[in-house]
Write a structure and sequence with these properties.
This protein has two helices and five strands; from the N terminus they run H-E-E-E-E-E-H. It is of the alpha+beta class. A five-stranded antiparallel sheet has the order 4-3-2-1-5.
Length: about 110
């Protein structure tokens, strides 16, 4: 019955090309860098610059969606007036964007 099943023999040993594995890994790393890492670093740098340039009188939108006007700025905190005689104090990092002046009155 051996004539129905053929014998399987190992192929000759071939040496692996070290660049055959390295090149695809470099391409994948490059894609991750340009598509994920670099844009995130740019976004973080822009937000840090925004937070460092906050001034009294700026109208801002917080990460929680609160719209208000900055009344006081310290090293780590800002005081934001969100209504008449209503001032909240929050971390500078919670400010997501500075909106154009007059936005509060238009809303």
């Amino acid at each position: 019955m051996d004539f129905f099943i053929s014998n399987a023999y190992a192929q000759g040993a071939q040496q692996a090309d070290p660049f055959g594995f390295l090149l695809p890994m470099l391409i994948i790393f490059g894609a991750f860098y340009f598509l994920l890492i670099r844009p995130q670093q740019k976004k973080q740098k822009a937000h840090t610059e925004l937070v460092n340039n906050l001034e009294v009188g700026d109208e801002v939108l917080t990460a929680g969606g609160i719209l208000g006007k900055i009344t006081d700025v310290t090293d780590h905190y800002v005081a934001i007036e969100i209504g008449e005689n209503t001032v909240i104090k929050m971390q500078k990092g919670s400010v997501s964007q500075v909106v154009p002046k007059g936005t509060i009155n238009a809303a």
